[in-house]
């Protein structure tokens, strides 16, 4: 007899084995890193029909659903794929302490185009590209290491409306930090990606980045930060003028805000 989903209170348990990554597509959970296996709420599942012949263990999908990225979370290799699972192109990041912090990668959709945000050249340099072609949309002069933040970008995340980007990484000296960037401003002035973002929040971290805060956008102006090292979840208000959070109400303009 095949195992069936079990409902415990409001929790439904679906039998599954060897799961690597899970993303929602409609009412289905899809394990892209395992070749696109689909799990349905009725307990059934089906193979995606792909074998990528690599140890990808994470995945992220663009808001449009047209592109996804498979990657090794504490490795250097990634793969951009289409909605149907076909490979588009390979991506990489620096090996430098790659096993100490999560792969910095995110997808956004702006003006009908899927954007790939990652760090292909240096751990401290964010780049924005056309997800399909790889064309750079953030070309700018290269600064020396001493001229930019010595910051390991990680755990990239974009707001549901594709307005803001957050990077949750760490500085040398055991300090974790969260930086928020305006995507439209970064596309217009890519040099802003080499600065500290619109807002930032930092705290001491003795684990070299691995225990840094995990960000999750609740709304465009509300960011949840969870840290396993100090076992706390804190709700951070992102001070952006002319924005209103459905959960918290309107936000006043912060004194000295650049916008």
Question: Which key features would you list for this structure?
Answer:
about 260 residues; five-stranded antiparallel sheet; disordered C terminus
Your description of this structure?
There is one protein chain. The chain is an all-beta fold and about 260 residues long. Among the domains are: about 20-50, no CATH class; about 105-250, Lipocalin, CATH 2.40.128. It has one helix at about 185-190; strands at about 5-10, 10-15, 25, 30, 35-40, 45, 60, 65-70, 75-80, 85-90, 105-110, 115-120, 125-130, 150, 155-160, 165-170, 175-180, 200-205, 215-220, 220-225, 230-235, 245, 250. Strands 14, 15, 16, 17 and 18 form a 5-stranded antiparallel beta sheet that branches. The longest helix is centred in the C-terminal third of the chain and has 6 residues, at about 185-190. It is globular, with a radius of gyration of 19 Å. It starts with 5 loop residues before the first strand and ends in a 9-residue tail after the last strand. Mean pLDDT is about 80; it is low at about 230-235 and about 240-259.
């Amino acid at each position: 007899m095949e195992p069936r989903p079990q409902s415990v209170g409001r929790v439904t348990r679906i039998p599954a084995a060897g799961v690597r990554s899970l993303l929602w597509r409609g009412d289905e959970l899809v394990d892209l890193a395992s070749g696109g296996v689909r799990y349905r709420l009725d307990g059934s599942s089906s193979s995606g029909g792909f074998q990528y012949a690599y140890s990808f263990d994470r995945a992220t999908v663009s808001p449009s659903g047209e592109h996804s990225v498979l990657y090794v979370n504490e490795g250097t290799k990634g793969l951009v794929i289409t909605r149907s699972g076909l490979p588009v192109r390979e991506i990489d990041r620096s090996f430098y302490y790659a096993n100490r912090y999560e792969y910095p990668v995110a997808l956004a959709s702006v003006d009908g185009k899927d954007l790939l945000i990652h760090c292909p050249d240096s751990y401290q340099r964010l780049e924005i590209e056309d997800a399909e072609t790889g064309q750079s949309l953030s070309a700018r002069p290269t600064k020396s290491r001493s001229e930019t933040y010595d910051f390991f970008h990680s755990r990239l995340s974009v707001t549901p409306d594709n307005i803001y980007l957050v990077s949750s990484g760490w500085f040398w000296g055991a300090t974790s930090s969260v930086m928020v960037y305006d995507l439209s401003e970064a596309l217009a002035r890519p040099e802003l990606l080499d600065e500290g973002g619109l807002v930032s929040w930092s705290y001491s971290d003795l684990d070299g980045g691995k225990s840094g805060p995990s960000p999750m956008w609740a709304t465009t102006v509300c960011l949840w930060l969870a840290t396993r090292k100090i076992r706390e979840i804190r709700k951070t208000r992102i001070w952006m003028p002319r924005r209103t959070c459905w959960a918290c109400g309107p936000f006043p303009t912060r004194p000295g805000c650049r916008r």
